[in-house]
Amino acid sequence: MNRTRIFAATALIATSMLTTPTAHATGGSTTTVMCVTDSMDGGKTTAVAPEAAASLKQRTRSYEGPCAAFGPAQDLGNGNLRSYTQTNQDGTPYAVGVTFTRDALAGLPTDMNDRHHCYDVNGDGRVDQDTECVGGYEHPLALPSATATAAPGLSSQWVLANYNPKGHGLPGIYDVPHFDFHFYLKPKSVRDAIRTGPCGLVINCDDYATATKEIPAPYMPAGYMDHKEAAEGAMGNHLMDADASPEWHGQPFTHTFMYGGWDGDLLFEEPMITKAWFTGLAAGTNADGCFPINQPAAWKNAGFYPRQYCINYEQGRDDFTVSLRDFYSAPGA
């Protein structure tokens, strides 16, 4: 049976089980809201029984949640990546994320970085790519154009995805090939104004002071600390949960979550995930999953903020998604 016939047959099964998103399937089991589709764009948001949902995900390009809006694609390795948002019927955000094709894991660069953000730190008249440049290979991703009207109040404003072929600091912890997904809470112009220089991780010394300015206690995420070692040019400071993150306690780094800081406020939310973890997802040796995000006691700015980050391999689409989910409405200070 060809793919078109598989999709038609599976969709027919799903349609026969459809209910409203808040209803329950026969026998009391909860239905799953999905975007039923066999293309990368378009589709129909429906609610299906769990067994139909599993079949759709395996055999078609259907996926969980409302149908997504996608941003423009950019090349990554032998594939591509792009941002996406999913919005509930009431206008609240379901997910904001990045999706990239499995073939993007092949053909990736091997040098330390793209040399976009460098500084002659030691003043010897040349730039050492490994020690005087930062940012890996960066991909600034605009959110889909309809996001502002479809999901007003979404905290994420744009995404900076970085591939780091040799990892980055801190040495012995994050120096393995991995991806960083920065969901920025402030406009791109704020990040673009963070200069390179001789302090911190190749950051201008005045900007280092701004990046490491203390965040007032109510706005500091629970368990997170500023270790004063990870303020980076063209990016911002990095706040880490060293108490709970396994890689700080003798375990290998697989994935973790960081916050960014700038001028006494939070700047970004950042899942960091190794290339090996994605390879394991596609091979079936790692499991899809969602993981909790520690929250501050309060947010300065009102909006919808995520309580989970999720890492998934979509078998029917043969791609990966990294997303922020489980949003709640924060009133702001």
Break the fold down into its secondary structure elements and pairings:
Layout: H1 3-16, E1 32-36, E2 44-48, H2 50-59, E3 63-64, E4 68-70, E5 74-76, E6 79-87, E7 93-101, E8 117-118, E9 133-134, E10 137-142, H3 147-150, E11 158-164, E12 178-184, H4 188-192, H5 205-211, E13 237-239, E14 255-262, E15 265-274, H6 275-283, E16 289-292, E17 303-314, E18 319-330
Antiparallel strand pairs: 1-2, 1-3, 4-6, 5-6, 6-7, 7-18, 8-9, 10-11, 11-12, 12-15, 13-14, 14-15, 16-17, 17-18
Helix content: 10-25%
For the secondary structure, the number of strands is 18
Shape: globular
What is the rounded distance between the termini? 58 Å
Order of helices and strands: HEEHEEEEEEEEHEEHHEEEHEEE
**In the residues, how many domains can be counted?**
2
Whole-angstrom Rg: 21 Å
Structural class computed from helices and strand pairing: alpha+beta
pLDDT below 50 for ≥5 consecutive residues: which ranges?
A: 1-27
Q: What percentage of the residues does DSSP assign to strands (E)?
A: 25-35%
Q: Report the biggest beta sheet as strand number plus sense, adding barrel if it closes.
A: 7 strands, antiparallel
Helix count equals: 6
Average of the residue pLDDT scores: 91
